Amino acid sequence: MNKFIFGLSQNSKQILLLKNASKISQTFQKFSSSVDIGSKEHLNNLVSKSKVVVFMKGNPEEPKCGFSNAVVQIMRMHDVKYDAHDVLQDERIRQGIKDYSEWPTIPQVFLNGELIGGCDILIQMHQNGELIEQLQKNGITSALIQEVNEKGEKDEK
């Protein structure tokens, strides 16, 4: 690119850069405008992309609130693979998911496109064993079940 713009005036270089930026912007808009971010259609696509989807503050490697961190820790204990969406990155997703689910708080956990609930409900399900049951119903084996089975096999020997 340097060879191409070598010898052009600074003004001509700026015009070339603006034209390229405009093309990039148009290309991005073409791909992103098909579904509005935070719309019901957009969120429906996100919650149905994976068996388990979590809308949280921050990301699994760096949760930004204690409730999101608790959900991440539970998912780690069960070794559940999930898609995570940081609602702090875009206000349209943050508000959109609340409207979509009719649930006022973050985090929100979806299993096969259905809202399970937030942090308190997930903790309760984890504590009473219901989370393991729900995971199994949806074809996901909890690592906690595997540990119990492995321990039982060792005790039998």
TrEMBL record:
Q: Which InterPro entries match?
A: Glutaredoxin, GRX_PICOT-like, Monothiol_GRX-rel, Thioredoxin-like_sf
Query: What Pfam family does this protein match (any one)?
Result: Glutaredoxin
A GO molecular function annotation here is: 2 iron, 2 sulfur cluster binding
- CDD domains attached to this UniProt entry: GRX_PICOT_like
Task: Note the superkingdom of the native organism.
Answer: Eukaryota
Glutaredoxin domain location is 52-116
Give the keywords, sorted: 2Fe-2S, Iron, Iron-sulfur, Metal-binding, Redox-active center
**Database matches in SUPFAM superfamilies:** Thioredoxin-like (SSF52833)
Gene Ontology cellular component terms for the protein in this record: mitochondrial matrix
Which NCBIfam families does the record associate with it?
Answer: Grx4 family monothiol glutaredoxin
Know the name of this protein?
A: Glutaredoxin-related protein 5, mitochondrial
What organism does this protein naturally occur in?
Answer: Armadillidium nasatum
Tell me the classification of the organism that encodes this protein.
Eukaryota, Metazoa, Ecdysozoa, Arthropoda, Crustacea
